Amino acid sequence: MLNYRFIGKVLGHILLALSVFMFVCALVAYLCEEDDVQAHLISAVTCLIIGGISSWVWRSKTVDVGRREGFVIVTFVWIIMSLFGSLPYILSGTIPGFTNAFFETISGFTTTGASVVTDIEALPHGILLWRSITHLIGGMGIVVLAVAILPYFGFGGMSLYNAEAAGITNDKLHPRVKHTAKLLWRIYVVLILLETGFLVLGGMPVFDAFCHSFATIASGGFSTKNDSIAGYSPYIQYVIIVFMLFAGTNFTLFYFVWKGKLKKVFENQEFRVYLTVIAIVTAIVTVTLVFLDHHNGEESLRKALFQVVSLVTSTGFATADYTAWHPYLTYLMFLLLFSGACAGSTSGGIKIMRHSILFRNTLLEFKRMVHPHAVIPLRIQEKTIAAETVYKVLAFVMLYMTIFSIGTFALTFFGMDMDSAMGAAATTMGGIGPGIGTVGPVNNFFAVPQAAKWVLSLLMLLGRLELFTVLILFSPGFWKNN
Predict the structure, then answer these.
(1) Is 112 annotated as a binding residue?
(2) 93 is in an annotated binding site
(3) 311 and which of 91, 268, 336, 399 could share a cystine (Cβ 3.0–4.6 Å)?
(4) Is residue 347 in some structural domain?
């Protein structure tokens, strides 16, 4: 039987943590003498009261939590955080309507970066900071944050970590999950501080630098400017490119760098494939822009590299409208919406590792057809990949494409054209932000029909939690008592 008391207590503590960030936004709004102070304060107090009551009423002495509780908590954390996280937008009136406010919030927490705001630069500083903080929290995962904090309240969270980090590889840097989560957050914070420093050196205001760093390292995409990164200097664009690459890298590799084990970094096959894919696609785009569209060489390289890295890492920043490039480049950019970066990173999408396993397994099928009685295992980095893992990858990709197809159908049913529906479904599932059609990099999601926004919100949740974590709740067997 599910431990509902424990679930209620965890959700209460999550709301308490959320109230702290809202108080910070209220302070910034007060210092900037803007009129959204009250909205942040009311939101913070609401989360504080409800979180406190929930924590007390549902208090439990349970030391740990089972896998079923883990899946329930993870899914409902994202939903409840998005519901309460909508309050600052609604109370301040900066985003009209509950649907739009919820869409903006879940887009932030899932680090999708799809926005309904038509004039970002008109938003007060407190709201801009709140948008970026949703990326900050969602980047490493709300539940990973909880795993680092909750042990201090007397209970652990191994099942929560496993449910939230539901990728192929779950490399732990420390045998105790609490220490793993804390170490990941240290790496996360260090990268944010480093990027902020480099952006400030390039002339970006400190406030904007922090907001863009939150979005970059979280692979988010919310900017403080209407034209995203396009109006900034080449130096700043290159800095963001580098840190987007970092954000798409398995965080375990940063630990190896810190320990001086550089050989492990360069031997990592997924990391090499990740860089190779980016290099090849960037070269194709650059050559096309130079010779077919007659663009400047350095500018073409910079725009190509920025857009490719932004899409592969699911960050979603933009410096150019790739839908206005040569048609086959637009199609190439669309394919990148299904890419994803490394497992163990903050990026979304299918991930390089899954693509590698599928590709290698497909090639091995030819050998198995020629030698039907031979045992030919799948190996990556000299390690045999279990058949069970291959089946899981196949199931994931099949389910991913099925949901993409259903989502596209639903969006067209609610009034979107085919190109825009495909782009919107792909970009929200991949946690990227801009797509193609009317939701391309120079547009946003404000004009998307209301019903379609709820479909996209569900796709963002499914994509961020890697499908199975959410969909397992709809399995009748999940709710049966053992």
Answers:
(1) yes
(2) no
(3) 336
(4) no
